[in-house]
Amino acid sequence: MFKRSFHSKDRAGKAVRPSKKSSYNERVKLKMQQKVDSPPMGSTLTSPIITLIVGHDARLFACHEDILVLSPFFRAALQGQFYESTSKRVELPDEEPEIFSSILEYLYKGDYYPRLLHDKRRNTWQLEDALDGQGRGSVESTVYHNGVGGVLLKDSVIYCSAEKFGLDELKRLALRKQGLQTGIAVDVILRTARYAYDNTPDQDARLRAHFLALIIRSRKTFKRSGTMQMEMEIGGSKLFFDLFVAMCNHVDDIVDITNNRSPKAI
Fold this sequence. Notes:
Helix content is about 45%, strand content about 10%. By secondary structure, the chain is of the alpha+beta class.
């Protein structure tokens, strides 16, 4: 399921140079230029307004039906599976209002705050309002999740919601943004990793692999962490077996490189 090794191109917290092998960076740049600050092409925004009741506090949101049905989840809901045509209301009691607000912003504009910006001079990516260009500054990277009862990485929660709503491009965007965040506390990383495992299918390894790579790169910090020890002793998550497998693969890669330079076996 996971790569044998985690390369420097996966590093979180640093502006990443676009890879020539991937067309995603160019697609993002083009879509940001075309979609941000403008409604989706072909939409007249004259469709009916749908009321959405979000979270345990029943926060109210409104969205044009033509926009909402860009999500397969809401398209099914508005066709009657979870929706009464006379009320034009959809209830989402398990969603976080702050996260859902970002999702609506994405549906209308193709991005959510803080926007992903391309620095043409340096040919790197950074987050809007990130003072040092590495995700730190006035950009808040975490959100309190009422269902979990703790702080999580915002982009990870958006990724999981995008999985639920069938928004694959939003998943890719959220993962790229999270890769630009740094300075996150160990307990937040582990809590979010558990959340990611609980809210993504086994066949979707991208977000999970991001956390495995992050823990392996920062292993000196994590192995000294009392929080990490406590989480592993509690267990109850596939995260730690996957981490074990990833660590073994990482060691195997190092051994292979060493043997190629000076043949010997362990």
